[in-house]
C-alpha cells in the first residue's frame, strides 16, 4: 500500500468512525441514563437518510433538507419518548426488546408505503462536489472531509454540553444515579425526553450526512444498529468518550479489514469485540 | 409419569398433529411441517430465555450453522447418510454455541442481548462473505439425506408424508429430552440461576459452567431445527441467520409464555398463523405484526402468559395490577 492510498484509507476510517459515533453516542446515553435497550435506534438513521432524500428532492438542496430534518427528528424523538418509551423505564429488558423490535417492523413498513422499496441516490451539494488530487490516479472527495469536520464539531459540542453546562451536569448525574437526581428535585422526565430527542436527532443527522455517499435503501438502519451495539459494548454503556474511542477503533478495523483481508472483512469488527469481551467484559471505559 | 389432564391434552394434540397428513391437503401438511420445525427451534430457545433467564437475541446463528452444515457435508449429486449428517450438523451447531457462549456469558443484561445479536451477525457474515457459504444466494441441498442403513431403508425423506412424521418424531423427542433435562438436577440449577444467580453461586454452584452447558445444548437443539429446515426446503441462505429470524423465534417463545415447552410450540403455531392471516390481507403484513407487538407490550405488561392471572384477579374483584 503506497502512501496516497494509505492516506485515503485513513481518512475513510476517520469519516466512517465519526459517523458511527453520531449514532452510537445517542444509543449509549439512552442505555446509560434510561436503562433502555433500543433496537429501533438504527431506524432513526434510516429515517434520517430518507428525510434527506425526500426533503432534498422537495427543496433541491441538501443543506435545506438537513436544516428542516433536524428539528423534525428532535420533535419525532420527543414524541416517541412521550408516547412509548416513557412507559418502558420500569419494564424488564425483554419487553423493551419486544416493543422496539415491533417499532422496527412499523418504521420499515411505513417507509415502504410512503417512499417505496427502491434504492435512491442523493446529490452531493455542488459546493462540496470537488475532489482533492492526491496522486496522478488517486483523489479524495471533499464531501467526505466535510462529513468528518461536521462530526468533529458535533463531538466537541457534545463534550462541551455534557461537561460544561447545567443540562450536562444533570445528564451526568442521571447517568450515575437517577433516584438521587429525582430526590434532589430535578425533573428527570424532562432530562429523559431531552436526551432521547437528542439521540434520535444525532442518529438521523448521521443518516442525512451519509445519504449522498451510501445512497438510500431499505433496511439500511439494521447494519448500523448492530455496529453501534458493538461500539457501545466496546466503549462501555453510558460512556460518550468510550463510544468515541470505540467508534474510531471500529472505523479503522472495518476500513482496513476490507483492504487487507477482504474475505474476512465482515467479521473483523466482531473479532475486535470478542477480544475486548475477553479483556474487559463491561467495556473499556465502564466506570466502576 | 402420572396421567392427568395436561398429559391427556398433550396426547390429544399429538394425535391431532399425527392425523394432519391423512387429510390429504398437501399445502397445509407442508405448512404445518414448517411450523413444527419452528416449534423445535422455539423450544430450544425457551431453554435459555424461559428457564435459564438468558435473553439471547442471536439464536438464529445455530439454526443457520446446522442448516449450512447439511448442505456443505452432503455430496453434490448423491444422498448423504442421515445417520452421519444429522449428528454432525447438530454437533457443529452445539460447538458454535459453546465457543460463542464462552464470550457472551461473560456479560449480563443489556450487554448479553447486544453481544448475542452481534455474534449472530458475525456468523451471518461468515456465510455471506466467504466462499464457504456461496454468498447471498446461499447453497442448494440437491439430494435429501437417506435413512438407509446396510441396505435397509426404514423411511424415505423424499416422501412428504415420511418427512412429516420424521419431523413430528423429532419434535416429540426434543420435547421429551428437554422435559427430562429440566427435571434433572442440572435443569433445577438452571431454573435456580434464573430466579437468583447470586444465591446459586453462594450455594457453591459455578453458574458459568451451567449457563455454558445450557447455551451449547440450546444451540445444538436449535441445530436440530436448522437441520430439518435444510432438509424440508432444500436450500439455505444467509437470511436464516439474520436478526429477523432471531427476533421471530423470540416472539414465538414470548407468545407462548416463557418457561413452558408446550407454550413454545403453541407460540410457533400462533406466530405462523398470524403471519399467514396478515399476509393474506396485505403485502405489508409486518406493519400489522409490529403494531400488535407494540400494543401488546404497552397494554399487557407481563405478556400473554400473565393474562390468565389478570382475568382471575379481575373475576375475584381485585385490581388487575396488584
TrEMBL record, chain A:
Membrane topology of this protein: Multi-pass membrane protein
Keywords: Amino-acid transport, Cell membrane, Membrane, Transmembrane, Transmembrane helix, Transport
CDD domains: TM_PBP1_LivH_like
Transmembrane segments annotated in the record for this chain: 16-37, 49-80, 142-162, 190-213, 225-252, 259-279
N-terminal signal peptide: none
Superkingdom: Bacteria
Localization per record: Cell membrane
GO terms for MF: transmembrane transporter activity
Statement: the UniProt record of this protein carries the keyword Plastid: no
Biological process annotations from GO: amino acid transport
Keyword Transferase part of the UniProt annotation: no
Chief location of this protein within or outside the cell: membrane
Gene Ontology cellular component terms for the protein in this record: plasma membrane
Family designation: Belongs to the binding-protein-dependent transport system permease family. LivHM subfamily.
UniProt xrefs under PANTHER family: ABC TRANSPORTER ATP-BINDING PROTEIN, BRANCHED-CHAIN AMINO ACID TRANSPORT SYSTEM PERMEASE PROTEIN LIVH
Protein name: Branched-chain amino acid ABC transporter permease
Amino acid at each position: 500500500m503506497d502512501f496516497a492510498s494509505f492516506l485515503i484509507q485513513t481518512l475513510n476510517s476517520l469519516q466512517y468512525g465519526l459517523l458511527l459515533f453520531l449514532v452510537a453516542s445517542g444509543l449509549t446515553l439512552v442505555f446509560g441514563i434510561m436503562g433502555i435497550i433500543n433496537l429501533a435506534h438504527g431506524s432513526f438513521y434510516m429515517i434520517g437518510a430518507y428525510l434527506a432524500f425526500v426533503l432534498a428532492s422537495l427543496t433541491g438542496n441538501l443543506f435545506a433538507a438537513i436544516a428542516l430534518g433536524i428539528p423534525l427528528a428532535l420533535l419525532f424523538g420527543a414524541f416517541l419518548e412521550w408516547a412509548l418509551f416513557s412507559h418502558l423505564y420500569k419494564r424488564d429488558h425483554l419487553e423493551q426488546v419486544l416493543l422496539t423490535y415491533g417499532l422496527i417492523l412499523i418504521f420499515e413498513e411505513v417507509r415502504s408505503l410512503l417512499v417505496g422499496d427502491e434504492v435512491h441516490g442523493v446529490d452531493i451539494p455542488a459546493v462540496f462536489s470537488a475532489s482533492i488530487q492526491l496522486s496522478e490516479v488517486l483523489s479524495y472527495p471533499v464531501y467526505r472531509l466535510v462529513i468528518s469536520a461536521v462530526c468533529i464539531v458535533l463531538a466537541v459540542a457534545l463534550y462541551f454540553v455534557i461537561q460544561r453546562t447545567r443540562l450536562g451536569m444533570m445528564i451526568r448525574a442521571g447517568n450515575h444515579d437517577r433516584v438521587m437526581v429525582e430526590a434532589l428535585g430535578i425533573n428527570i422526565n424532562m432530562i429523559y425526553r431531552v436526551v432521547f430527542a437528542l439521540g434520535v436527532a444525532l442518529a438521523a443527522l448521521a443518516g442525512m450526512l451519509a445519504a449522498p455517499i451510501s445512497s438510500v435503501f431499505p433496511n439500511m438502519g439494521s447494519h448500523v444498529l448492530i455496529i453501534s451495539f458493538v461500539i457501545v459494548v466496546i466503549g462501555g454503556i453510558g460512556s460518550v468518550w468510550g463510544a468515541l474511542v470505540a467508534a474510531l477503533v471500529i472505523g479503522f478495523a472495518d476500513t482496513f479489514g476490507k483492504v487487507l483481508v477482504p474475505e474476512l472483512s465482515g467479521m473483523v469488527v466482531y473479532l475486535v469485540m470478542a477480544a475486548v469481551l475477553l479483556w474487559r467484559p463491561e467495556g473499556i471505559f465502564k466506570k466502576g | 409419569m402420572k396421567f392427568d389432564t395436561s398429559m391427556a391434552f398433550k396426547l390429544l394434540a399429538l394425535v391431532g398433529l399425527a392425523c394432519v397428513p391423512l387429510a390429504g391437503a398437501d399445502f397445509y401438511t407442508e405448512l404445518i411441517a414448517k411450523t413444527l420445525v419452528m416449534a423445535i427451534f422455539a423450544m430450544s430457545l425457551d431453554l435459555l430465555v424461559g428457564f435459564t433467564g438468558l435473553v439471547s437475541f442471536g439464536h438464529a446463528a445455530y439454526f443457520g450453522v446446522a442448516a449450512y452444515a447439511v448442505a456443505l457435508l452432503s455430496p453434490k449429486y448423491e444422498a448423504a447418510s442421515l445417520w452421519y449428517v444429522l449428528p454432525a450438523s447438530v454437533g457443529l451447531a452445539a460447538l458454535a454455541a459453546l465457543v460463542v457462549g464462552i464470550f457472551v456469558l461473560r456479560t449480563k443484561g443489556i450487554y448479553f442481548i447486544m453481544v448475542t445479536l452481534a455474534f449472530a451477525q458475525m456468523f451471518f457474515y461468515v456465510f455471506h462473505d466467504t466462499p464457504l457459504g456461496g454468498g447471498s444466494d446461499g447453497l442448494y441441498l440437491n439430494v435429501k439425506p437417506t435413512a438407509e442403513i446396510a441396505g435397509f431403508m426404514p423411511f424415505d425423506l423424499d416422501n412428504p408424508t415420511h418427512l412429516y412424521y420424521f419431523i413430528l418424531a423429532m419434535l416429540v423427542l426434543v420435547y421429551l429430552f428437554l422435559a427430562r433435562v429440566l427435571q434433572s438436577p442440572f435443569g433445577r440449577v438452571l431454573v435456580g440461576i434464573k430466579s437468583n444467580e447470586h444465591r446459586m453461586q453462594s450455594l457453591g454452584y459455578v453458574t458459568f459452567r451451567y449457563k455454558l452447558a445450557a447455551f451449547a445444548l440450546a444451540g445444538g437443539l436449535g441445530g436440530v431445527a436448522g437441520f430439518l429446515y435444510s432438509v424440508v426446503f432444500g436450500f439455505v441462505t444467509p437470511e436464516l441467520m439474520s436478526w429477523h429470524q432471531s427476533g421471530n423465534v423470540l416472539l414465538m417463545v414470548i407468545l407462548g409464555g416463557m418457561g413452558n415447552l408446550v407454550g413454545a410450540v403453541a407460540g410457533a403455531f400462533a406466530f405462523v398463523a398470524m403471519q399467514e392471516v396478515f399476509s393474506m390481507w396485505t403485502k405489508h403484513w409486518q406493519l400489522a405484526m409490529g403494531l400488535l407487538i407494540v400494543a401488546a407490550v404497552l397494554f399487557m405488561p407481563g405478556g400473554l402468559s400473565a393474562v390468565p392471572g389478570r382475568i382471575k384477579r379481575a373475576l375475584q374483584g381485585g385490581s388487575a395490577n396488584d
